[in-house]
Amino acid sequence: MSDLVLFWHRRDLRVSDNVGLAQAQARSRRLVGVFCLDPDILKGDDVAPVRVSYMLGCLADLQARYRELGSELLILQGQPQQALTQLAVSLGAAAIYWNQDVEPYAQQRDTAVASALKEKGIEACGDHWDQLMHVPGDVRTGAGKPYTVYSPFWRNWRGQEKAVPVADLAGLTSLSPQEKSSAVGVIDLPTAKDLGFNWDCPLLVTPGEQAAQDALTTFCQAAIGEYDQQRNYPAVPGTSMLSAALKFGVIGIRTVWAQAEATYEHSRSDEARDNVTTWMQELAWREFYQHVMYFYPELAAGPYRTPLKDFPWDNNEDLFQAWCEGRTGYPIVDAAMRQLNETGWMHNRCRMIVASFLTKDLIINWQWGEKYFMQRLVDGDLSANNGGWQWSASSGMDPKPLRIFNPSTQAKKFDPDGEYIRQWLPEIRSIDTGSLLSGEIAPLERQGTDYPEPVVSHKRQQAIFKERYKHQKAKAG
Question: Distance (Å, rounded) from C-alpha 433 to C-alpha 410?
Answer without folding.
Answer: 14
